[in-house]
Amino acid sequence: MLPVSRAIPRIPSITNTTRHFFSQTNTMAPLSKTHKLNTGDEIPAVGLGTWQSKPGQVEKAVEAALRAGYTHIDTAYAYGNEKEVGQGIKASGVPREKIWLTTKLDNDWHKHVAEAIDTSLKNLDTPYVDLYLMHWPASLVKGNTKEVYNDWDFVDTWREMQKLVDTGKVKNIGVSNFGVKNLEKLLSAESTKIVPAVNQIELHPGNPSPHLVEYLRSKGIHASAYSPLGSSDSPLYKLNSLTKLAESKGKTVQQVLLRWGVQKGWSVLPKSVTEERIKANIDLEGWSLTDEEIAQIDEVHKENSFKVCGDDWLPVKIFFGAGDSD
Ligand code: NAP
């Protein structure tokens, strides 16, 4: 049996220190909820997403989010905005140790893990990240992203990522876009000594992936929800069942979607570059969804199933259908 990740240095009491800090500087109450990882660390339940934010927007969005009480920022080398994220953190004045910062290893850096993390840390202007994810289980050839290596795959990449934990450059390591099939391969590999702390996957009512979510729970891997609002031009905003439910709660559809994800035990990563939306998206305290309301949202995919991120842009298959990515 695989050991759950061993003890990794923890940042001091994120929830309490953050609450204290923001209570002195903000009127907006921060979401105090966190989810515990298999390392013992606590990941804040709401993080700001930064994918597809245009250059020049990310720094301001990150600064606004941190000032509004966010303690969690999600970025990736592939988004091309790590530098701006770092600048936004500096501009906010929030001390680095109060922030959960996630970035991701890009597909064509799989053979260059040590160099990749150094590049991201330099971009972000920080000595460590709280979570480093393998962005996709796709080891693409450096300089030719239309091909995969034939002598290297994500098991080799994970073997190298595990070495980062002892360097202090990453507090937790995890994966993203892994379905059951690829996780089974990863977890059964001889070189795998650390169970990923997190699998960041597409999760919203149009793609709730119950089978994969249950599999992750059984392995002690935290599910982090990307595209929790259904991404750009989300078809979820106009669904009668959701607009009616939101109205009855006196909340926006977006708040209902995020609260649903948090109550299901996921961390949610809504992206916005609009200050008012950034603030509203973390205003999730003081109310909740009932079990019946959760069950109602769980049903949405039966009539309105959709997926934002497929694998057809990659030269390797990632998703294998029902029961894998659901
Ligand atoms: P999302 O967060 O589900 O939706 C973002 C869209 O919703 C944007 O168009 C945003 O517009 C809009 N929006 C946000 N809050 C709103 C509100 N309160 N009212 C109305 N509209 C609102 O989509 P996402 O960016 O696809 O996913 C979120 C994050 O997950 C990403 O940014 C990224 O960090 C992560 N992600 C990871 C992966 C992966 O492979 N690991 C893949 C996809 C995403 P404005 O910005 O204009 O306000």
UniProtKB/TrEMBL annotation:
Pfam (any one): Aldo_ket_red
NADP-dependent oxidoreductase domain boundaries: 46-300
This protein's UniProt keywords: Oxidoreductase
InterPro entries documented for this protein: AKR, AKR3A, Aldo/ket_reductase_CS, NAD(P)_OxRdtase_dom_sf, NADP_OxRdtase_dom
Top-level division of the source organism's lineage: Eukaryota
PANTHER family cross-referenced by the UniProt entry: ALDO/KETO REDUCTASE (PTHR11732)
Protein name (record): Aldose reductase
